[in-house]
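Tutorial, part two.
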Amino acid sequence: MPLIRNGTTDSARVDELTARLADEVRAARLSGQPVIYENEIAQTGTYHVTVVWDDWGRLPLQARSRVILDAYRVADPSKTGKLTIAMGVTRREATSLGLFPYAVVAAFRKSEQDVERQALDALKREGATPGSTGLELRCHTLDEAERAVERLQAAVPGPFWMIIQDTQQDR
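Running the prediction step on this input gives:
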Protein backbone atom coordinates (compact mmCIF):
# COMPACT_ATOMS: atom_id res chain seq x y z
CA MET A 1 0.00 0.00 0.00
CA PRO A 2 1.46 3.41 -0.88
CA LEU A 3 2.51 5.84 1.83
CA ILE A 4 1.13 9.31 1.19
CA ARG A 5 2.66 12.08 3.27
CA ASN A 6 0.81 15.33 3.71
CA GLY A 7 2.81 18.48 3.15
CA THR A 8 3.54 20.98 5.85
CA THR A 9 0.76 23.32 6.87
CA ASP A 10 1.06 27.12 6.93
CA SER A 11 1.07 27.78 10.69
CA ALA A 12 0.01 31.43 10.28
CA ARG A 13 -3.08 30.31 8.36
CA VAL A 14 -3.85 27.65 10.96
CA ASP A 15 -3.55 30.24 13.75
CA GLU A 16 -5.82 32.65 11.86
CA LEU A 17 -8.48 29.98 11.23
CA THR A 18 -8.28 28.88 14.88
CA ALA A 19 -8.88 32.44 16.12
CA ARG A 20 -11.75 32.99 13.68
CA LEU A 21 -13.39 29.68 14.56
CA ALA A 22 -13.06 30.39 18.29
CA ASP A 23 -14.87 33.69 17.71
CA GLU A 24 -17.62 31.81 15.86
CA VAL A 25 -18.00 29.23 18.65
CA ARG A 26 -18.50 32.09 21.12
CA ALA A 27 -20.84 34.07 18.82
CA ALA A 28 -23.23 31.23 17.84
CA ARG A 29 -24.62 33.09 14.81
CA LEU A 30 -27.81 31.95 13.07
CA SER A 31 -26.51 32.10 9.50
CA GLY A 32 -23.45 32.34 7.32
CA GLN A 33 -20.25 30.33 7.54
CA PRO A 34 -18.83 28.48 9.27
CA VAL A 35 -21.72 26.23 10.21
CA ILE A 36 -20.92 24.37 13.42
CA TYR A 37 -22.80 21.15 14.21
CA GLU A 38 -22.19 20.12 17.79
CA ASN A 39 -23.77 16.84 18.85
CA GLU A 40 -23.65 15.83 22.50
CA ILE A 41 -23.42 12.10 23.15
CA ALA A 42 -25.39 11.87 26.39
CA GLN A 43 -24.23 8.38 27.34
CA THR A 44 -20.55 9.39 27.38
CA GLY A 45 -20.73 13.15 27.96
CA THR A 46 -18.65 13.69 24.82
CA TYR A 47 -19.25 15.70 21.67
CA HIS A 48 -19.00 15.16 17.93
CA VAL A 49 -18.32 18.42 16.12
CA THR A 50 -18.54 19.01 12.39
CA VAL A 51 -17.53 22.41 11.05
CA VAL A 52 -18.63 23.20 7.51
CA TRP A 53 -16.58 26.09 6.19
CA ASP A 54 -15.41 26.93 2.71
CA ASP A 55 -12.38 28.68 4.24
CA TRP A 56 -10.90 25.24 4.96
CA GLY A 57 -9.84 25.26 1.32
CA ARG A 58 -6.81 23.08 0.79
CA LEU A 59 -6.03 22.61 4.48
CA PRO A 60 -5.42 18.88 5.18
CA LEU A 61 -8.12 17.08 7.17
CA GLN A 62 -5.83 16.51 10.16
CA ALA A 63 -5.05 20.24 10.36
CA ARG A 64 -8.77 21.04 10.21
CA SER A 65 -9.39 18.76 13.19
CA ARG A 66 -6.54 20.42 15.09
CA VAL A 67 -8.04 23.88 14.36
CA ILE A 68 -11.42 22.73 15.73
CA LEU A 69 -9.90 21.24 18.89
CA ASP A 70 -7.77 24.33 19.51
CA ALA A 71 -10.66 26.72 18.86
CA TYR A 72 -12.85 24.89 21.39
CA ARG A 73 -9.99 24.88 23.92
CA VAL A 74 -9.96 28.69 23.67
CA ALA A 75 -13.68 29.43 23.23
CA ASP A 76 -15.32 26.71 25.34
CA PRO A 77 -12.80 25.20 27.78
CA SER A 78 -15.52 23.13 29.47
CA LYS A 79 -15.47 20.85 26.41
CA THR A 80 -11.69 20.38 26.33
CA GLY A 81 -10.99 16.65 26.17
CA LYS A 82 -14.64 15.88 25.44
CA LEU A 83 -14.57 16.29 21.65
CA THR A 84 -14.20 12.75 20.33
CA ILE A 85 -14.86 13.64 16.70
CA ALA A 86 -13.74 16.96 15.20
CA MET A 87 -14.36 17.00 11.46
CA GLY A 88 -13.87 19.99 9.19
CA VAL A 89 -15.31 19.91 5.67
CA THR A 90 -16.12 22.42 2.96
CA ARG A 91 -19.73 22.85 1.91
CA ARG A 92 -19.02 20.92 -1.30
CA GLU A 93 -17.41 18.07 0.67
CA ALA A 94 -20.34 18.01 3.11
CA THR A 95 -22.81 17.84 0.24
CA SER A 96 -20.95 14.99 -1.44
CA LEU A 97 -20.90 13.12 1.91
CA GLY A 98 -24.70 13.49 2.11
CA LEU A 99 -24.58 15.80 5.14
CA PHE A 100 -26.64 18.48 3.36
CA PRO A 101 -29.58 16.84 1.57
CA TYR A 102 -31.60 20.07 1.42
CA ALA A 103 -30.91 23.09 -0.78
CA VAL A 104 -32.62 26.48 -0.48
CA VAL A 105 -32.70 28.20 -3.85
CA ALA A 106 -34.39 31.15 -5.49
CA ALA A 107 -36.32 30.47 -8.71
CA PHE A 108 -37.33 33.67 -10.49
CA ARG A 109 -39.96 34.47 -13.08
CA LYS A 110 -39.23 37.17 -15.64
CA SER A 111 -41.53 39.50 -13.70
CA GLU A 112 -39.30 39.13 -10.59
CA GLN A 113 -36.01 40.24 -12.15
CA ASP A 114 -36.10 43.51 -10.19
CA VAL A 115 -35.54 41.64 -6.88
CA GLU A 116 -33.21 38.95 -8.21
CA ARG A 117 -29.98 40.71 -7.16
CA GLN A 118 -31.37 41.43 -3.66
CA ALA A 119 -32.43 37.80 -3.25
CA LEU A 120 -29.07 36.44 -4.41
CA ASP A 121 -27.27 38.81 -2.05
CA ALA A 122 -29.50 37.59 0.81
CA LEU A 123 -28.64 33.98 -0.08
CA LYS A 124 -24.92 34.83 0.00
CA ARG A 125 -25.29 36.45 3.44
CA GLU A 126 -26.88 33.21 4.65
CA GLY A 127 -23.83 31.29 3.42
CA ALA A 128 -24.98 30.06 0.00
CA THR A 129 -22.42 28.88 -2.52
CA PRO A 130 -22.58 27.98 -6.22
CA GLY A 131 -24.09 24.55 -6.76
CA SER A 132 -25.68 22.42 -9.44
CA THR A 133 -28.83 24.59 -9.47
CA GLY A 134 -27.02 27.94 -9.28
CA LEU A 135 -26.55 29.70 -5.96
CA GLU A 136 -27.80 27.39 -3.21
CA LEU A 137 -27.84 27.29 0.56
CA ARG A 138 -27.24 23.69 1.62
CA CYS A 139 -28.91 22.52 4.86
CA HIS A 140 -28.56 19.50 7.12
CA THR A 141 -32.26 19.16 8.04
CA LEU A 142 -35.60 20.23 6.66
CA ASP A 143 -36.16 22.32 9.79
CA GLU A 144 -32.88 24.15 9.19
CA ALA A 145 -33.91 24.81 5.56
CA GLU A 146 -37.34 26.08 6.62
CA ARG A 147 -35.78 28.48 9.16
CA ALA A 148 -33.44 29.76 6.44
CA VAL A 149 -36.41 30.37 4.12
CA GLU A 150 -38.15 32.31 6.91
CA ARG A 151 -35.09 34.55 7.31
CA LEU A 152 -34.75 34.97 3.53
CA GLN A 153 -38.46 35.71 3.16
CA ALA A 154 -38.17 38.39 5.86
CA ALA A 155 -35.17 39.93 4.07
CA VAL A 156 -36.58 39.72 0.53
CA PRO A 157 -40.28 38.80 0.38
CA GLY A 158 -41.43 36.85 -2.64
CA PRO A 159 -42.73 33.52 -3.94
CA PHE A 160 -39.36 32.48 -5.36
CA TRP A 161 -37.82 30.74 -2.31
CA MET A 162 -37.77 26.96 -2.68
CA ILE A 163 -36.42 23.95 -0.80
CA ILE A 164 -35.08 21.08 -2.86
CA GLN A 165 -34.31 17.69 -1.30
CA ASP A 166 -31.61 15.48 -2.80
CA THR A 167 -32.29 11.79 -3.02
CA GLN A 168 -29.74 8.98 -3.08
CA GLN A 169 -30.10 8.86 -6.87
CA ASP A 170 -29.00 12.51 -7.11
CA ARG A 171 -25.53 11.70 -5.73
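The mean pLDDT is 89. In part three we will examine how such features are distributed along the chain.
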